[in-house]
Structure formats: structure tokens, C-alpha cells
């Protein structure tokens, strides 16, 4: 039988773990430590914080220390926990796709403004990844149907699993293919096309935080010389897949919104708008396609 002397107070483990993570690239060492410890104990973070008098047994310390080592060597917390909160749900994540980020919730907000609440609409999500954008839209619009496309089969599998877990699998279809190429003749036309495409300039990839550069797929990050290769392709191709009056919404990088808005206008889109994220950064460009 283990004595109390063999146990480590949770407060002590958290303090030492946060100090260790503070020496790494982590922007949130204390939060990371709390999430890792809660996960190792099989409890929610909130429950852990309400029970800070607990002590860890030696086996519990071993599990927590293993997770801490993974984080300290650069692995993202979301990959360790295999989940990330986004919009109103927790999504399963993995190395096959980008980790959902709060910035991208602006894309969901914009998409909802372009989606009718009362009638059936068709939504296309290009580069769906975990499916977080499409699934969030479908969860808010119960009459909507959606298709999510991704060039990586592992991402398609993730999105399909998330849709099943979150109760929208009967309204969501996921396929593997490069942008529009996986669409079939009977698909669409779509009332709304959304995308969080790769938009980081190639030369900037090496300057990303190591947990992004080393653990998230370059295909989902690298947008070519100026970051807008995929954006240009989508802007040119989307009109043939939109209903008259349909909308397109694109997430963009820092300082790209004005350029993308100009490209959209030059392609003939109307009602071009820019939406800011919670940090005040111009994050989403939306526009309407009307042939009349």
C-alpha cells in the first residue's frame, strides 16, 4: 500500500509542469499543464480546478509526465488530447488536418449570415479538414445539406467521424479530392461555398511556431509564393458551382483581405465584404455571385 509520502500534490505537479513548458514555445504553459493533467486523470479541466487538494499516485504521475514530455518536445496539446473545442462542439483532431482555431469561427459566423434559417440550402466546404466548419454550419442550420472535400484521405476520415459523433452524418458527405475535382455531376449547385484554404506564403513556413511547422500538414498551410494560389483558383472556379445569388466565404491571412477582396471584385463577384475576427484582424472575405 502506497503512503501519502509517495504522492505528489496536483498543485506541485502543475507548478513544475508550467515552469517547464514556459521554457518552450508554448504561449499558454499553465493552461497546457492543466489540460494535460486533467486528461491524464480522465477528468474535465473544470473538475480538476475544483479539486486542487488531490494528490497524484505514482502511476498517475507516470502518465502525466509522459504527456508533459510530448508537449515539451513540441507536440501540440490538441494532438496529445486528440480533441479541440470549436464553435459549440469538441472535434476529434489528428495530424492529417489543421487543428481548428478560434480565428476560423469567423468563417462560420460569416457563413451563417449567408444561410437561410428557414429553407433547405446546399453548402460546399473546400479543404474541410476535421469538418469543423461544415459541421458547425449544419448544426446551426437543420435544413441544410453539405459536402466537404479534402485532398487528404485521413482528413476525410476525421471529418466523417466527427459528423457521425455530432449528429449530422445524414446531412453531410465527405470525399477525397483536390478542390472541386471530387464533385460529381449531380452535386450542387450550392447556395454557399466556404473554405479555409492554405494561405501562408511559402517563404514564411519556416518562420512558423515549431508546433505548427512540424506537426500540421504543409499542404494545409502553404499557399504558394504570395499565399493566394488556392484563393485564386477558388475565386475562378466557384461561380460555376454556385446558384445565382449564391455566396462564397474565404478565410484569409493577416494583411491579405484587401487583396482578396480586390481579386473577387475583378472576377465579377458582388457585395464583397470583409469580416474581422475577435482580435480585430480582417479574417474572412465574402462575396455574392449573381449573373443577372
Automatic annotation (TrEMBL):
Domain Release factor glutamine methyltransferase N-terminal, by residue range, is: 12-81
Q: Which UniProt keywords apply?
A: Methyltransferase, S-adenosyl-L-methionine, Transferase
- Superkingdom of origin: Bacteria
Q: Tell me yes or no: is S-adenosyl-L-methionine among this UniProt entry's keywords.
A: yes
Q: Which residues bind S-adenosyl-L-methionine?
A: 127-131, 150, 179, 196
Q: Name one GO molecular function term.
A: peptide chain release factor N(5)-glutamine methyltransferase activity
**By its UniProt entry, which InterPro entries does this protein fall under?**
DNA_methylase_N6_adenine_CS (IPR002052), HemK-like (IPR004556), Methyltranfer_dom (IPR025714), N5-glutamine_MTase (IPR050320), PrmC_N (IPR040758), RF_methyltr_PrmC (IPR019874), SAM-dependent_MTases_sf (IPR029063)
Q: What is its EC number?
A: 2.1.1.297
Query: Binding residues for substrate, per the UniProt record?
Result: 196-199
Query: What does this protein do, in the record's words?
Result: Methylates the class 1 translation termination release factors RF1/PrfA and RF2/PrfB on the glutamine residue of the universally conserved GGQ motif.
What name does the UniProt record give this protein? Release factor glutamine methyltransferase
Annotated source species: Eilatimonas milleporae
Amino acid at each position: 500500500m502506497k503512503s501519502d509520502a509517495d504522492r505528489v500534490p496536483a498543485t506541485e505537479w502543475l507548478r513544475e509542469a508550467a515552469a517547464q513548458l514556459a521554457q518552450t514555445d508554448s504561449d499558454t504553459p499553465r493552461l497546457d499543464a492543466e489540460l494535460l493533467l486533467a486528461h491524464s486523470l480522465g477528468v474535465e479541466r473544470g473538475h480538476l480546478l475544483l479539486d486542487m487538494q488531490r494528490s497524484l499516485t505514482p502511476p498517475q504521475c507516470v502518465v502525466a509526465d509522459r504527456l508533459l514530455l510530448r508537449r515539451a518536445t513540441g507536440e501540440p496539446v490538441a494532438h496529445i488530447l486528440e480533441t479541440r473545442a470549436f464553435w459549440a462542439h469538441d472535434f476529434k483532431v489528428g495530424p492529417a488536418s489543421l487543428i481548428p482555431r478560434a480565428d476560423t469561427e469567423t468563417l462560420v459566423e460569416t457563413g451563417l449570415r449567408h444561410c437561410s434559417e428557414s429553407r433547405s440550402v446546399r453548402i460546399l466546404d473546400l479543404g474541410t479538414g476535421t469538418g469543423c466548419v461544415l459541421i458547425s454550419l449544419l448544426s446551426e442550420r437543420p435544413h441544410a445539406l453539405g459536402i466537404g472535400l479534402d485532398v487528404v484521405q485521413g482528413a476525410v476520415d476525421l471529418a466523417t467521424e466527427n459528423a457521425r459523433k455530432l449528429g449530422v452524418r445524414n446531412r453531410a458527405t465527405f470525399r477525397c479530392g483536390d478542390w472541386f475535382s471530387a464533385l460529381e455531376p449531380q452535386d450542387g449547385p450550392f447556395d454557399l461555398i466556404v473554405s479555409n484554404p492554405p494561405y501562408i506564403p511559402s517563404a514564411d513556413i519556416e518562420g512558423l511556431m515549431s508546433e505548427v511547422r512540424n506537426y500540421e500538414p504543409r499542404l494545409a498551410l502553404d499557399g504558394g509564393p504570395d499565399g493566394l494560389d488556392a484563393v485564386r483558383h477558388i475565386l475562378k472556379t466557384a461561380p460555376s458551382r454556385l446558384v445565382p445569388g449564391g455566396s462564397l466565404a474565404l478565410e484569409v491571412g493577416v494583411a491579405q483581405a484587401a487583396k482578396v477582396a480586390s481579386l473577387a471584385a475583378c472576377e465579377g463577384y458582388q457585395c464583397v465584404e470583409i469580416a474581422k475576427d475577435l482580435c480585430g484582424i480582417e479574417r474572412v472575405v465574402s462575396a455574392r455571385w449573381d449573373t443577372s
